[in-house]
Amino acid sequence: MKATAIAHPNIAVIKYWGKRDIPLNLPSVPSISVTLSQFFTETTVEWGSSKDQCTLNGEESSDAARKVFQFLDRVDADRPYCRVVSRNNFPTAAGLASSASAFAALALAASSAANKNLSPRELSLLARQGSGSAARSIWGGWVQWQKGINSDGSDSYAFPIAPQDHWDIRIIVAVVSDQKKKISSRKAMNLSAETSPFFQAWCDTAEEDIRIAKEAIQNKNLNQLGRQMEHSTMKMFGTMFATQPSIRYWKSDTLSILDKVETLRETGIDCWATMDAGPNVKILCLAKDAEKIQTAIDENCIVSHVLSAGSDARII
Amino acid sequence: MKATAIAHPNIAVIKYWGKRDIPLNLPSVPSISVTLSQFFTETTVEWGSSKDQCTLNGEESSDAARKVFQFLDRVDADRPYCRVVSRNNFPTAAGLASSASAFAALALAASSAANKNLSPRELSLLARQGSGSAARSIWGGWVQWQKGINSDGSDSYAFPIAPQDHWDIRIIVAVVSDQKKKISSRKAMNLSAETSPFFQAWCDTAEEDIRIAKEAIQNKNLNQLGRQMEHSTMKMFGTMFATQPSIRYWKSDTLSILDKVETLRETGIDCWATMDAGPNVKILCLAKDAEKIQTAIDENCIVSHVLSAGSDARII
Fold first, then answer.
1. What pTM value is reported for the model?
2. Using the beta-carbon criterion (under 8 Å), do B197 and A235 form an inter-chain contact?
3. What is the CATH classification number for the domain harbouring B36?
4. Under 8 Å CB-to-CB from A265, ≥6 apart: which residues?
């Protein structure tokens, strides 16, 4: 009645923004991501304990604990008290949303500890209910999370579209700010869906982004993938900007790095940028170019990490 | 057969982006602007000369001259040779598009020199054909340029919606870069209309921006006007970002100043930002707050100018 699981964070290359169902975390758009290898969340769940107890990175946090136990209620509404110990091998300030790896690891550890033998698809469906992007962190490598059409969310899960060793790609995470953002992505995306005049067009054009990106991944065409990733990113931020009140996560160094990425491309280095609900920039490039790019952007970063495609969530 | 005219540049508060007819400069959206007082273009046209001759800011520029003489052909297809001498009292690096004041002054000077007694509405229609935003610089103070529906453009002209002394407003122009932009607004807006998935929604929501901004100007409600101006601005940039390839005029200091404007607002100073096809920021505020705001933003500017609402184009 105890299990430990590991799951990795992921970066969306075709972005997720907006929900068609808020309580179930059903997305308004399909998305594609790449899972990252060097960073992970490790979570142990003890199914049956004297009381509900939750330790995250060595600390007891009541806010996070509430979300964790609500999630365990989804695994089993009649569950016993549980003990959860979770830690990330990366700092919060690493510029990566940890909720994806956290809920993927929790879904796997909790269902194993409860002796439920869930398939990866079932795990993806479960993890999604904790945090949308966690649906993708069940898988390593290149992953698609399909929007689905069912109102109960039963067809809104992720699946691999290429294995992790498919392509020797690097993702550079350029951290330009470690300040807490003013508005959470959860709140911001709901506000966008409600008030942005661009939200409908954002949704209507997502399938085409998926089609082009998927083709690019299958053909290992970084230029095609990068171009579509930047387009999806810029559409997402355009949708945010037009939200009322406007949502603007960028900082001045976000733009300095975008300028540098553009300059690097002009000098023949194939590299492409994306951002999520925050000011940090993630750069997609070939393994051979990673060091040169990291050097070029470093003066605008607090820290930068070079990561490769990661593996599936797993029991250890 | 010689006349000298003055016209002032203007800043759009409800933005112009995209054309429903490219050769005629008919806009896809209506816009509202405020004309600026301290800066102007002064243009002399001599109708009848030994050859076509054009001096801009003391220099003969063949590129600009071609546009000027094409414009004079619109005033009179059978015109004689003309001599045009034009100068701005502000440097190109002042962060203001000079084409608005330039074509407004040229329209007035040329039509006067040719002894055509045009009404302001006719002047606005004529100036528009040189540069869209020039339609608005015929008038001082607060000006609306209506989109019109006629295919010949006969109803796409500007008119005042409040006189220049209506409201003691200041416009701070914060210049963050004097580099030439990579893509002209003329090219960029056509590319947006062709490829941005947000262009239709941009057009569909413009009339509502006009209605709210007009009401705000009439009621001297800076909070309401500023909010709508920022929304119109963010929609315009969102539309640009989603253009393929993406159009991004902002520099890192553009964002630093936006952050400062937001911070100033949080401390109770009513100020609001807008940008055009470039990285410079224009801040709308009450006269009493202008100095404080200028001090707050100055470290991120090459130079900043505090301007007030300007007057009509006129013969001098």
1. 0.95
2. yes
3. 3.30.230.10
4. A271, A272
